[in-house]
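Before relying on records like the one below, remember that each one covers exactly one chain. Contacts with other chains, cofactors or solvent are not represented anywhere in the record.
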Amino acid sequence: MTDWSWIEEVNPAEVPENGPYRVAALYPVSVIWGIVYIADTINAWYYTIFPEK
């Protein structure tokens, strides 16, 4: 994937034609999953750096 211009045109109501998603329902689901994944990663790093005793 070399064309990243679809990121600049993010519109949750419409899937960009040149984006990686061809099914409109997958777009919002993957955005939510990405947010949860990032939050979980930050949480895991926090407990790695500051372990509870």
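The helical segments are 26-49.
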